[in-house]
Amino acid sequence: MGSRIKESPDYTFEVYMEVAIPGTQSSGPEVRRQYPVDYTDQETLQTVPKFCFPFCMDSLTVNQVGQNFTFVLTDINSKHRFGFCRLSSGAHTCYCILSYLPWFEVFYKLLNILADYTIKGQECQFQELLVSLHTLPIPDPKVPVHLGVHSFFTVPDTSELPSIPENRNLTEYFVAVDVNNMLHLYASMLYERRILICCSKLSTLTACVHGSAAMLYPMHWQHVYIPVLPQHLLDYCCAPMPYLIGVHSSLMEKVRGMALDDVVVLNVDTNTLETPYEDLQSLPNDVVSSLKNRLKKVSTTTGDGVARAFLKSQAALFGSYRNALQIEPGEPITFNEETFVNHRSSAMKQFLLNAIQLQLFKQFIDGRLDLLNSGEGFSDVFEEEINMGEYAGSDKNYHQWLFTVKKGGGAIFNTVKTKANPAMKNVYKFAKDHAKMGIKEVKSRLKQKEHAENGFSVGSTVIDDDDPTCLNSTTTIGKEDPLPTWDDNRPITMHFGQARQPMLLKRPSSNVNLESSVEK
Asked: E strands within 14-92?
């Protein structure tokens, strides 16, 4: 599905480090303590400390004591490794946990406890917490976990929409950035621009990067993704490919001195956004208007209202992808880009012509096709939003897929019947959910076997008063292969366990591959 989150990692966390800057600052950050003590990945041990202090230590504006922030490293399989950090002791000591699990609130809480144990010299409690956490089998979402007297948490469910105030990243993002700039940033990400976010507070900086990227759901940012950029990698800001990068304000003077051509810059401190593009104006007006109105409603400031507002926009823009699915007996299900673009309104067509070239959209479609062709059903909140009937027209081809699977016809069923029972349960649950939501025509059409080969007739379009996007539908066949991208080569930031030469960057030319080498 294009997600960079690793499924089923071996441990809750890979390594814990206590990193400090010597008084002379001549030798750079160094690891003072680690767990497990026998952790031997030298490249990680050398890389992480450089990300623990991503600001200018000489800056008089730096006051980072007690702040939590997150950096991201990307492994050789393009999966994110999150470095959860807490700064204390005058910003000269950083407590860091490296994990594949995106448990922001959980690890921030645990870091606060570990820092408190360290300051108070409670070594036994310190060791007990780390041992318990590291040996803990990764529990299911929403399961309560007790690691000690003061260490209780509930495993987050990352499949749910982020809520305010429970989700720290979205909360800080929504508080720090006004609606207009959120809309501009959202549009710039949909056009896969080069985007810089700067802020003087590290916790807010990384929260804004993570929070803004999460609003692309069910799609995922597919290019360079660095929530906070350390000093030694500032040349990444000159990279010629799309990126989403966070930079501490103390380093922005150096960044401004670089050749930043066509870069979108959001300054969180001043709540201003600079862009050479008219991306927001290029989005369909009705979608933008509906999104803006929803975000400005008081009811969206708590719960999942903000995330759901963006989800509705994503459904309005991309939810009719089902109408471009083509099913042929004995053949894999395919996606026709021409059909996807042409069945929409003229205003929407201009956006979709660009959208079908986006890596985030291509990854999304490839992921959906993989699930369809393996016989699995959908149960995520994006598909549930589409099921409400506001965006997808008749969905006749997707409903035909449901019919084919349920009746056991064609090559699709031959694939499905070899699957474990849970996969089939997902399919039946999805069809059942359609009926529960009041889409009566789905149930009736599924019963008409003679229409299975020819598809269903086009149903009426439901128009939401708050989102007057009208969708039509037609169907053809075909699917283009995704364009090769920078991400097809090597993942960004770090490639652990592989030797490479240091990177010498001036201003990168178009053939520079920053993934192949990183200055250390």
From this structure: 15-20, 30-35, 68-74, 80-88
